[in-house]
Structure formats: C-alpha cells, structure tokens
Design goal:
This protein has 783 residues and is α+β, with helices and mostly antiparallel strands. It folds into 3 domains: 1-45; 67-81 and 281-360 and 435-783, Beta-lactamase (3-Layer(aba) Sandwich), CATH 3.40.710.10; 83-272, Biosynthetic peptidoglycan transglycosylase-like (Penicillin binding protein transpeptidase fold). It contains 28 helices and 20 strands. The strands form 7 sheets. Strands 2-1-3-15-16 form a 5-stranded mixed beta sheet, with helices on one face.
Length: 783
C-alpha cells in the first residue's frame, strides 16, 4: 500500500512542475509580446504616431474670438469647434479637484499610465484604467474609436505610448489644461470656456463647486449626461452628485458641503453661442465680411504662405464695441419696437385695410412686390439649385408648410411654430417695422454700439451699413452747414417762410420745383435756428437756391457719405438714400469740431499666440472749420430745445399725452445739452433721429422692408415717434452707467467764434412760432 502511494505522489509532482514551466513561459511571452506591442506602437508599426512637433502643437480647431473694448467676448467665428483655450490659472481649484477625484485620483503619482489601476481593471477589481493623460491622448490623436475589439486594443496601446510621451512633454498642469480645453461638452460647448459660458453664462474662473461638478460629470459621456437633453436632466444631476461624493471621499469638500450641494438643482443659465444668437449679432456678421477681406490680402498671410482660417485658427479680434453700451442699445430696441409694432398692426389689420400693410398700392402692385420678393429669397435659391422649374417653385409658395416664425411675445423677441404658406410668410415679415442703430465716439471714430435689426435669425439684412433709406430732414444740417461755410450765416439770420419755386433751367431740373411746408403755413419769417427746429422746407430750399446743390453734394462726400448723390435741389429735403453708418459718421464731424474720423470697428487682430497681426491706423481729415461745425451744432440744439426733439426734455410726457400708447413709460427728462435732428419721409415710410452729445453720436432709423408698408398717420409715423424713443432709452441707460463717462457737458465753443449765436440780441419781426411734431415730414411729390 505504501509503495503505491509514493508512486502517485511522484506522478503528481511531475505534472505540477510541467504546469509551472508553461505558466512562466506564457507569462514571460506575454510580457515580451506586451513590450513588443509597445515598441511596435512607438515605431509606428501599428499606425501613424504623432512626432515631437505634433505633440508640441496638437491639431485642434480654435474659434476666432471677438472681444469688446471692455474685455468681454461678444461672440466667435467657428465651423464645428467652438473652442477658445484657457490657461491653467483660469481654472478654479475646485474644478481641477473635481476632475482628479472623479477621473484619476493618482494623477500626480503616475507618469501617464497608472499600473495599479490598470492591474485592478484587468483583474476585474472595478474602476477605470484610463488616466487623464490617456484620455487626453485619445481625444487628441484617436480620430475614430474602433468598434472591433482587436483594433481597439491596438489603439489602446498607442494611447498608452502617447500618454507617456505627453507626460515627458508637458507638466501635469499643462495636461489638465489641455484636457479641459479639448473636451466636447455638447451644445457647441467645445472646451471648458465655451461650456461654462453656454451652460452657466460664466467664465471658467467664476464657476462654483456644484457647477464645476456638473461639467466634470459630463466627461463620462457628454451626449448622455447632457443637461439640455429632454431625456436626462435628472441623470445629469445624479452624475453631478456622484462627482460631489468623490470630492468628499478624497477630502476635497466636507460632508456638510456635499449634502447641501447634492440637494440643489442644476440651476442652468443656458446661453447658446451660435451665429444667430447672443449680443451684437449684426455687428458680428459685418465683422465676418471684414475678416474675410482681411485674410484674403496678400500681406496678411501666415509665415508658411497660407491664408488664416477665421473659423479654426484661433484669432482674437479686438473691437471698439462696448459690451455695456451694446446691451443698452439692444435693450432700447427691445423696449420700443414691440409697442410700436402693436400700434402698426392695429392700424394695418386686413379688416381695416384689405391691402395692409401696403397702404398706397393696388392689388396688382402688391402681387408684383411679393413675386419679386420670391425671386430674391432663400427658398427660391434652394429650389432652383435642386433643379425645380420656375412654375414649380412659384407653386410651392402656395402650399402650406410647417415653419417657425418670429413674433413679439410679452414684449420679447420669440418664435412660434406654425403652418403657413410661404407667400403668407413673406407678407407677414414685410409687415414688421425694423430698426437700425449705430453709436460712435466722434473724437476717436470708435463705434460703440451697432444694432442692425431686432432678431438676426429671422431678419438677416443689416440696417446699419447694408440698408440705405431716404433720410428726409436729417439731411438738412448738411445744407445749413454748407450755407454757413460759404455765406458766413448766423443762426439768428432770418428768412421768409413764403413759397419758393426753383426754375427748371437753373440747375437742370426736368421741371420747376415748388417747395411746400408740411404745416401749410407760409407767413412771416424765421431765424435759421427756428427754421431747422421746425424743419421749415421753404427756408431750407432758399438756402439751397443761394448756394446750389453741387456744394452740398461735395460737403456730404467730405462728411463721409459714400453713396453717390445727384446734385439736384430736392436733396435739400432729404431725397438721397443713405445708411445709418454714413449718417452717424457725418454727424460726428460736427461734434468733433469739423474733423471727420472714419468709423473704426477693429483696433487689432492677434493670432492664437498673441502675436499682433493687424493694428488699425486712424483716418482723419479736416472738413469744416471749428467755427462752422460749432454753429451747425448750435442750430441742431434748437431741435431738442424747441422743435421736434423737445420730447427728450423733462416736461414732454406731461404736454404731449396724445401719444401715450407708445410713449408713456419713456420719461427721459434730459436737461443736458443735446443736438439732434428728426427726419420723416414721404408717406411716413422712414423715421429717423440723429442725436449728439460732445463724446457720443447716435443715429436711429425705423421703417419697414418696403416703403409701401407704413403708418397711416403722422402721429405715429414720424421720426420723433418711431426712432427718437430708442435714442432716449439708450442714452438714459448710458447716463445711469456712470462708468461709461458719456458727457453731459456743453459743446466746446471755439475761442475765436466770430458768428453770432445769441439770438436774444437780434430783433425779429415776430416771435418764433410754436412747432408741432409733424413739421419734419417731407413731400417730394412735386419734384
């Protein structure tokens, strides 16, 4: 029995040693294979590996950032990647702690690969094996994660090798910063800065603990843990609470802090960053065209000879726009336009007027207007590119389709989903009144605010620079300035209000031009100051007859008017179509003592490394003597002291109650010097107000897309009702923000003023007549 037992033990000993030998063979072979895989990966045998240069400068698309004069981000240009990198110093400590506690607690103890974590994962011990460095390597250099297990294993090996190289190349802080900057948080939140701005309307350094925890929680899967997704706001909150628990587990926050924060809601302040949304959208679109022109200039190419890409090269564009003033300008538009639109809609309901809002057009003319609009629209272009015939395209405009339309709701710009025929949609949009507004420092030419419309998504056409509309009485100061310059007239010089006819042969007119006053009053005389305040047409025509239209045209050109103007007498009453941009630049010359400054929107451009690529050079020229400019400003002060701009003063709301529906609630109560001019064109199609204080000139236009759409009466359809309230609301907000330094001082009088501006020492045949709010409307029907 004993002998048999010994034999059995001997057999078992032989078998066991055999297994041990194979175990070590396989173990060593595995290690050798593992090492070989690392070597093959490092040699590039498993696929392309980034060299030193690519590790130093990873290929990431960076958005171009548009920066205001007060250091705020107005918006960005990007294609797919809305990414603007930040430095490690811009990351709050609790944000970094949240990342380490959740993703890689041994981050500062390993060199790219956490062997303990990897072994634990291989043995099924739970927990993730990927370090922050490995995840960065994946984000930067794995273009597409393979679904094949074997291919994914090779990708993993490559990521390990890259992670080790990244650790050698960068500090731990730099790796964390890159990881935050590269990650896609969804909703165009590329990188931590965009994500912080989009989800919480904050810069990264301003994030609190629970906000940081939510964003770090999204690293697990930003598509699933998306606070904006309808399916998983609760899941996002739960994931945030997991991060908070991890922060407590590793001693970054106390249990009391964790408990209190886990009970809170996400408290998002969702602020999407798209080309259609945000602040200064119309200005940003103008800037896009500016940048496209700039990058195409030969002198502005990269060192390697290629062009800069405004969507991916991370340029920084520093602008003159003040974010605070821009916000006040947009708020003023938002306050006034829905109230004005409500009255416009009330006057132009189809029940009241079957051809509304095209008041003076017959149905065939309206049909033609809409048909022309079809051919200019985006729908026509798209269908034409699809090969549709003209007949098919036109027929499509009469088929109801689902669409989202713009609408004022509770005084706010909003959208409504509806079903509508495209032809009805065209008519609907043509019934909207639209604003254009620009504000500029006359001393520097710096444009401070630019509002080209009320909603860029639905009204793409910019009414600051693109749109040109008839300017009406706002052109009259050009006539007055020319006359003062040539004839040395005083604001106290008097002219008769009597009718005047300018003969056809004098200036090559097709027929004689008889000028009318809008109030029908032709008796007595007026000083130039009173005549401009009341916008008396016959007095302006007399000045034009004295000096001729050609000098006025030349004056307008010197003042920065780019549009070609025909030298005919009727320009005295404002027949030219000009832009808000041109008008503000021209008026700024008067406020700047006769010196024209070309409007400046961009001060400098830098590349992603901070190298200055462009620095603006001021463009100035002397247009008028300081004396003539000052006298012209003094004339325009009369408009706000006793003319159609009087409503800006403190007692206007009391004395002019008939306009309470759209004006009540606008108590401007300005008592400082203001120079300005209202303008209203024929049929009340265009309303203007140009207003100036010593260091800020602002122009406002309001009207519909087509001149045939307008108010029926002058009560609402004049510049003093359509445009002036926007100016008043804007300036009131600017004055309340004392940090802006908007002047309330007198316009500086020249030391050698030789022209008399004190009309109290002049004896007139009669007292200046009271003016009403209708006097700035022009009638060109006889020309």
């Amino acid at each position: 029995m004993a002998k048999k037992k010994d034999t059995t033990n001997k057999v078992r000993a032989v078998d066991f040693s055999k297994y041990i030998r194979w175990f070590w063979i396989l173990f060593v072979s595995g290690i050798l294979v593992f090492i070989l895989l690392f070597l093959l990966a490092s040699w590039g045998a498993l696929g392309e590996m980034p060299d030193h240069t690519r590790l130093e400068n990873p290929e990431t698309n960076l958005a171009t950032e548009i920066i205001s004069s007060d250091g705020k981000t107005l918006g960005k240009f990007y294609f797919n990647d809305n990414r603007t990198p930040v430095a490690y110093e811009d990351l709050p400590e609790h944000l970094v702690n949240a990342l380490i506690a959740t993703e890689d607690i041994r981050y500062y103890k390993h060199s790219g690969i956490d062997s303990r974590g990897t072994l634990r994962a291989l043995l099924g011990g739970g927990g993730g094996a990927s370090t922050i460095t490995q995840q960065l390597a994946k984000q930067l250099f794995t273009k597409q994660v393979s679904k094949n297990k074997f291919e994914r294993a090779f990708q993993k090996v490559k990521e390990w090798v890259i992670a080790i190289r990244l650790e050698r190349q960068y500090t731990k802080e730099e790796i964390i910063t890159q990881y935050f900057n590269i990650y896609d948080f969804g909703n165009y939140g590329d990188g931590i800065r965009s994500a912080a701005r989009i989800y919480f309307n904050k810069e990264p350094q301003d994030l609190d603990i629970k906000e940081s925890a939510m964003l770090v929680g999204m690293f697990k899967n930003s598509s699933f843990y998306n606070p904006r997704a309808h399916r998983n706001p609760i899941g996002t909150r739960n994931r945030r609470n997991v991060v908070l628990a991890q922060m407590h587990k590793y001693g970054f926050i106390s249990k009391e802090v964790m408990d209190s924060l886990q009970k809170t809601e996400l408290d998002l302040s969702y602020t999407p960053e798209s080309h259609d949304k945000g602040i200064a959208t119309y200005f940003r679109e103008y800037l896009r065209s500016f940048m496209k022109e700039w990058v195409n200039q030969e002198k502005n190419k990269k060192p390697d000879g290629s062009k800069y890409n405004i969507n991916s090269d991370g340029l920084k564009v520093y602008t003159t726009i003040d974010s605070r003033m821009q916000a006040y300008a947009e708020k003023a538009v938002e306050q006034h336009m829905p109230r004005l639109q409500a009255e416009f809609d009330h006057q132009n309901t189809p029940k009241r007027n079957p051809t509304a809002p095209f008041l003076e057009l017959e149905q065939p003319e309206i049909d033609k207007l809409l048909k022309d609009g079809m051919r200019r629209g985006e729908r026509w272009r798209i269908l034409r590119e699809q090969g549709k015939s003209t007949k098919e395209i036109e027929a499509s405009f009469y088929e109801p389709v689902p669409m989202t339309i713009f609408k004022w709701i509770d005084g706010k710009p909003d959208e409504v989903d509806t079903v509508m025929k495209p032809i009805d949609s065209m008519r609907y949009y043509k019934s909207f009144l639209r604003p254009g507004m620009m504000s500029m420092d006359p001393k520097t030419g710096h444009v401070k605010a630019w509002v080209g419309g009320m909603d860029y998504k639905h009204f793409k056409y910019d009414m600051v620079k693109q749109g040109k509309r008839q300017v009406g009485s706002t052109f009259k100061p050009f006539v007055y300035a020319t006359a003062i310059d040539q004839l040395q007239l005083s604001p106290c010089d008097s002219f008769p209000r009597s009718p005047i006819t300018i003969e056809a042969e004098k200036y090559g007119n097709p027929e004689p031009w008889t000028v009318k006053n809008s109030d029908g009053n032709y008796s007595g005389i007026q000083t130039l100051k009173d005549a401009l305040a009341s916008s008396t047409n016959t007095v302006t025509a007399r000045l034009m007859n004295e000096i001729g239209p050609q000098p006025v045209v030349e004056m307008a050109e010197k003042l920065g008017v780019e549009q070609e103007i025909l030298p005919v007498p009727a320009i005295a009453l404002g027949t030219p179509d000009l832009s808000v941009y041109e008008m503000v630049a021209a008026y700024s010359t008067f406020a700047n003592k006769g010196v024209y400054n070309k409007p400046v929107m961009v001060t400098r451009i830098e590349d992603k490394n901070g190298t200055v690529l462009y620095q603006f050079t001021p463009e100035s020229k002397d247009v008028l003597s300081e004396e003539v400019a000052y006298v012209t400003v003094n004339l325009m002060q009369g408009v706000t002291e006793g003319g159609s701009g009087t409503r800006l003063r403190h007692n206007w709301a009391v004395n002019q109650i008939e306009y309470k529906e759209i004006i009540t609630g606008y108590p401007y109560e300005f008592d400082n010097p203001i120079a300005g001019k209202t303008g209203t064109t024929q049929n009340h199609s265009d309303g203007w107000f140009m207003g100036m204080v010593p260091n800020l000139v602002t122009g406002v236009w309001v009207g519909a897309e087509d001149r045939a759409a307008h108010f029926k009466t002058i009560n609402y359809g004049q510049g003093a009702s359509m445009a002036l309230p926007i100016w008043g609301l804007y300036m009131k907000a600017c004055y309340e923000d004392e940090a802006l330094g908007v002047s309330k001082d007198e316009f500086e009088e020249p030391s050698n003023l030789s022209i008399n501006i004190d009309c109290s020492v002049v004896s007139n045949d009669e007292e200046p007549e009271d003016t009403n709010l209708d006097d700035d409307i022009e009638d060109f029907s006889d020309f």
